[in-house]
Amino acid sequence: MIKTWIFIGLGSFAGGIARYAVSRLATHIAGLSSLWGTLAANLLGCLAIGMLYGLFERHGAISEHWRLFLTVGFCGGFTTFSTFVHENYSGISDGRFFEMACYAAGSFLLGLLMVHFGHLITR
């Protein structure tokens, strides 16, 4: 179990640094606001997690620890949005449209509500 946590932690560390670098690069080079740097990181994270799971399905020859390093760790540290989108994609692919619509809408709306409450609590 400890080995699994180390792999995930190291992946998260690398993903967090990569996210910061991509966001800074997008805002600095393209002259965009940080909002667009976040969008760039989220979209790249979605591409990365889609490619990784596609490779795992096609080849399947990667250890569980490295799979967790790349997906939960790196992609999770880079952006949890990629995991959120992949979960929705998997659910829709399995025919669970209503469940995924509720999950997506609930995540967004309840997330906004929780951010609002967080602001209210700390004011």
Care to describe what's here?
The chain has one domain (2-122). The protein is 89% helix and 0% strand. It contains five helices and no strands. Helix 1 (2-29) packs across helix 2 (34-59), helix 1 (2-29) packs parallel to helix 3 and helix 2 (34-59) packs across helix 4 (80-93). The N and C termini lie far apart (40 Å). The model has no long low-confidence stretch (mean pLDDT 89).
Search tags:
123 residues; mainly alpha; 89% helix; 0% strand
Strand content: under 5%
Terminal Cα span: 40 Å
Average pLDDT confidence is: 89
Radius of gyration: 16 Å
What would the principal axes of the Cα set say about the shape?
globular
Q: Outline the low-pLDDT stretches.
A: none
- Multimerization status: single chain
Biggest β-sheet description: none
Helix and strand composition category: mainly alpha
Number of strand elements: 0
Q: What is the number of helical segments per DSSP (H or I, 4+ residues)?
A: 5
Tally the structural domains: 1
Q: What share of residues is helical? A: over 70%
Q: Secondary-structure element sequence?
A: HHHHH
What would you say about this model in short?
The chain is an all-alpha fold and 123 residues long.
